[in-house]
Amino acid sequence: MALQTNPNLNAQIIYELSVQNHTETHDFAGVIRDLDRIRDLGVDVVWLMPIHPRGEKMRFGVCGSPYSVKDFRAINPAYGTEADFDRLVREVHARGMKLMLDIVYNHTSQDSVLAQEHPEYFYQGADGKPMYRFWNDVYDLDYRNEDLCRYMVETALSWARRGVDGYRCDVAPMVPLSFWTRARAAMDEVNPDFIWLAETHHYPFLVNMRDRGWCVHSDAEMYQAFDITYDYDVHYFYEDYLKGKGTLEQYVDGLNRQKAMYPMNYIKLRFLENHDQARVCSLVHTDEQLAMWTAFSYFLKGPVLLYAGQEYKVAARTNVTGPDAFPREEAPWLCGLLRRLRAVKKLPIATKGAFFLEKPAQDSLLVGRYEWGDEMLLGAFNFHLVSGEIALPLADGEYENLLGGTVTVRGGRAPAPLRPLLLHVTGQRRAQAAFREHEG
After folding, report:
1. What digits encode the pLDDT tens for the residues 293-341?
2. For 32-35, which contacts have Cβ atoms below 8 Å and span 24 or more sequence positions?
3. What are the tens digits of pLDDT across the range 19-46?
4. 208: part of which helix (H) or strand (E)?
5. Could you count the other beta carbons within 10 Å of the beta carbon of residue 145?
6. pTM of the model
7. Residue 114 vs residues 46, 82, 119, 348: alpha-carbon distances, Å
């Protein structure tokens, strides 16, 4: 892991959006108009999917993929001007949030500036022309070229100098780790607090690419340069469980293994959905289950991701290669829950405490906890809303649920919760008052 990674990143709430699909105006101005609402959800970091001009050759969909970039140093004119972007940066900062850009340094569109001016920057096929390794609308960059490395480092620095606070790095393991460590070292001179988030891979993709002879890095390797990696190493357990193809125990085992597989201060991005994955509301179909999973995603150790539309209970995946904005139907209860969960996420114990997940007693009930000094932050979840009881590691008595209401523990057991149960206790139970103070 990068030595300077700030453990407080575990408490961050990141909001991902596509400028093209976020509002009916499809531009930076529309995003600016929505910033107050985004901030009020408790968001710390606004992540913009790629803002650059999109390639036209071999393009996907009506608008092309945002990950088929024509010019890394330019802004998509459909989104606004350079001045409009700079205003967006200022407006994000004025609301106490940070701005993260999505960068796509593995490849460019086939009609990109670099493909036209510097074909030597790319992997070459048998015909001596630029080639792709996986996606056929792009060409893959070859970082054995020193001129390319210098160009891409300077490009990364240029956006940071304009006020950008972090990067989400697309398919980061396909780019040599030596480049990322070099770019990070250079960035430290511009902004030592810059946030580096790597989109790491599901293991079948990694194995597939390695079997083809390509050097693709593991999550553990990526921590040498990055602060945060995706939790795709366990995401398929989560989806399999929701689809009835796997068990809760398999998912929990995967989460617990992360503590042994990665550096001691590893940080994993926690999410129920993103632009590449199914929407959570296509997998769960009741508000009660959605509340359970939403609370659990916030309870897990690591920054949490909200994908634009998630707060509106959008079930259909947003087509980021098309022009349409996602539908908005108010879900006040969900937005209220997100605000309360932010207060839980910001409790010091959720960053500084040791984190544990118990082996599920059955395929619906899960108990986890943070321990820090004489404090405990306990979470209990009932994903299938079964009846019965749940074992809790607490003395008998009545406890206040941080999300509202109380629970009574007798003989170390309580009723199986029908809403997420989050309890913050100490020997003197001082912590709950501190939580209410923070929430206010």
Report:
1. 999 999 999 999 999 999 999 999 999 999 999 999 989 999 999 999 9
2. 32/87, 32/88, 32/91, 35/91, 35/92, 35/95, 35/97
3. 999 999 999 999 999 999 999 999 999 9
4. helix 203-211
5. 14
6. 0.95
7. 28, 21, 7, 46
